[in-house]
Amino acid sequence: MIKMKASTWYIGGRLLQAIPLIFWVIVINFLIIHLAPGDPVSFLAGEYESTPESMEAMRKEFGLDKPLITQLGVYLLKVVQGDLGYSMRMKKPVLELILSRVPATFLLMGTAMLFSTVLGVLLGAMYSRRSSLAENATTFLAIAGYSMPAFWLGQILLIIFSLHLGWFPSQGMMSMRVRETGLWAVLDTLHHLVLPALTWAAYHVTIIFRLTRSKMLETLSQDFIITARGKGLDRRAILYRHALPNAILPVVTVLGVNVGFMLAGSVLVETVFAWPGMGRLMFEAVSARDYPVLLGLFLVISVMVVLANLVTDIVYALIDPRVTYK
Amino acid sequence: MKNRSLISQKKVFLPFILLLGLVILVTFADAATPRHGGTFIFAVEGEQANLNPFLISTSDVVPIQVSLFNTLLTQDLKANFVPSLAESYSVSADGLTYTFRLVKNATWHDGKPFSSADVVYTLRELYPQNPRTGSWWKPGANVVVEAPDSNTVVLKLKQPYAPLLDLIAYPTAGPFILPKHLYEGTDMKKNPYNSKPIGTGPFMFKEWVIGSHIEMVRNPNFFGRGKEGKPYIDRLVFRLIPDPAGRMLALKKGDVDFVPYNAVPFEEVPELRKDPNLVIDTRGAGGSTIKYLFINLRNAPVSNKMVRQAMAYAIDKKKIVDLVLLGEGKDAKSVVTSTTEWAFNPKVPAYPYSLERANALLDKAGYPKGAGGIRFKIRLSCIGGRGSDIQIAEVMRDQLKQVGIDAQIVSLDRAAFSDALFMRWDFDIAIQQAATAPDPMVGLTRLLHSSNIIKAALTNTAGFSNPEVDKLLDEEYKQVSREKRSAMWYRIQEIVMDELPYLPIYEQPVLNVYRAVWADTITSIYGHNQSREHAYLKK
Questions:
Q1: Which of B239, B245, B456 lies closest to A155 in CB terms?
Q2: Domain B62-190 has CATH 3.30.1460.30
Q3: What is the ipTM of this complex?
Q4: CATH topology for the B39-45+192-285+511-537 domain
């Protein structure tokens, strides 16, 4: 009970600490976004013939005629009240727009993360023997996975598995030719999920694999493993029961950090596969200079990263008996 | 009421008609008759805010709007006006009165009957709210819209306006007729039907999944159904695919049926031509566009006419077409597209590729070659992410270098480019495009008339001011005779191609790509911007 209370306090404290952090995230993003040349009005007007009057009216409608500092103040006040504003391009509330895209991104990211973590840890444990073949394979895979850009890998996978082999659909989250319902619709979405999730997972598998392997090598050379070997335990038990739980701790840390990277990477993967998630929304908002949507996305993403780090710390406490929160 | 009387008449002839039908069916059984069915999937690049044609008419949304709504007239492949909501029309000899007889069998998708009241309401109240409509349409001031009866609409103009019918029919920003019963008394901008439209068109709105697709279904009561029961397609889907490579892949795989030409990368065309499952259709070029070099006449040294002409000689347009468009286009000779046959002047001052003439003009203009053979530096602005603009800029930079002009490429994204070009006039030369369609008066007056030197998009950004051109532009559209207009446009092009505020580079090729299983996909000069009511699956 006492431990529970302590951790509640800890979580509360961490959340409070996040508030100034998020405040500065908003302020800095706000200024950076407005520093970019061009504004939403010039984007919208660039689409067709406009008059100076119609453009002035648009600026006024969006509040862009006021000084920057006033715009920032107005925005912060609204955010405190839970209002993320109105999309200039889509003419819809920002929160509604973002929330409508969250499920697609979470489905894709969650699948990719689960897959890459399980596979990365398993491979890392399996290939934790010191051999030149494993060494070379590791280095090769790590460099390849690490340096392959998601948009390139995504297109290669599409060309091979969608266009030539015809195993997977090419774009989007559901079939258009025939609209499935019920269980078939779920299976249809899973079918669409495979290639983008693989693309997204490729990079993370290599990170997790490399990390697990190096930690395993480190752990396997420690005294308690030598003791276990001396006791005559079989290799598999040593590997999975004694070494792996110790080696896996840093992987948990990396997972938390990866949430941020993955959300950033969603722009590329979702664009290549026409996946209707947050990354696509961000891509469109950047090119249209849709300030409220961009700021809203940055805000939502920073909150997610803060939460992911918090969850990481809590998980750490659960699996590592050495860590307690007071 | 009307329907009932028709049926009772038909009852008498029913057995006879059935028998006749059977005979016809047997006789022509193996003739190619369009069949019903199928899903047509159209790839679009970007998401839309709404579908109201008077609020948004970007290149991505027009193909969606033409499926849901109708204009009074439309145009066939030879640019003849053909009936849509108006089954016939007449124009008075003085060019001041236009009378439209409306079809009698049109209904809105919600079942309410369509009448002249909808047309009058749209033209008086909604159409003027479109920022693209401009000053030519001011109901009450320069045009009076009336409905003598429920099937007739009359437009009375203050003075003749030559491009009127083209504008009435034009799908981009044109007057699609909207339902009065759903818009009257509301703020058009906030009307919920902007996102779930009710139209008269061949397809009815079904659902819109933001970020994914818009789906429509066949309208069984379409007024243009004819004997064949058009449209043939059961489901029409507009699928969002932002990545150009992804669109092409989906097309090759068969996940998409149609990719409009503005979304087809040129480097893909040779590959697409080899694919027997695909058709590359160059018809439907009515809205064709010219790729220009915009020149800022305010900035030296390009403010000097000799420098501009020297650039025209130094730029090898044919080479740009070969390198950038892989030969899939035509170098532009004038500011009017050659497809606009009545107005295009083939005898304007030409600038055949000649380094000698370019060098001579630059020497004469007072810009001798300095260190490293460089005469002067200028900025060449372009949109980095728009199709092949950056490639044009790169080829052009190399070509200008040959005559000692050091052009520095300034590559911007679209918002920043629009801002620099149209709002701040902060450029020397820039790659930009503009359309002649639907009439040179609409597309070019904005670029050429001195009264349009304003800080707004697609205006006289060059800062070109020529009293004779102004005067011709003020008069030409009031001419009832096309010959007179034609002569005036010939003269305008002569002056402009001598002064060169805008240097035309090439006419944007129209290469719509679709799957070969479809027939009659393109039947109008609007090309990708026409409705798919005639398209059907081949056997």
A1: B245
A2: no
A3: 0.81
A4: D-Maltodextrin-Binding Protein; domain 2 (3.40.190)
